[in-house]
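Narrative summary of target 7.
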Amino acid sequence: MKPHTIGGTLVKPGCIEMVRITLGEETAQEIYKIPMSDNTVARRISDMSDDIHEHTANIIKNRPFALQVDETTDVSGKCYLLAFVRFVHAQTILNQFLFLKQMKTHTKGKDVFNTVDAFFKSAEIP
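Modeled conformation, tokenized:
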């Protein structure tokens, strides 16, 4: 529950020290150039999430998969639906996170179905 700025105050200094010890001072100076602002980190997290979502959706469009959903409630009382898929890719069984959606109303079967259905329609997954 820390802000994204912890990367600049905790993670980056630790990385700089590790690089300094293992690769030397010159290489450690290069780590200083990595932007760690709150907006940059938030944007990168969002970009990685979008990439994972797109990649997984594209894979399961063309093959059979198993879907697992579960609901959870956070400390503030908001209810979320988590979805995972299991599929075969390159002769390996993979388990992949698919989405996390906040439930707008309840967690009744109809609400869960509507949330999953809306996601599949938006991702164009048959």
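The first helix runs from residue 6 to 23.
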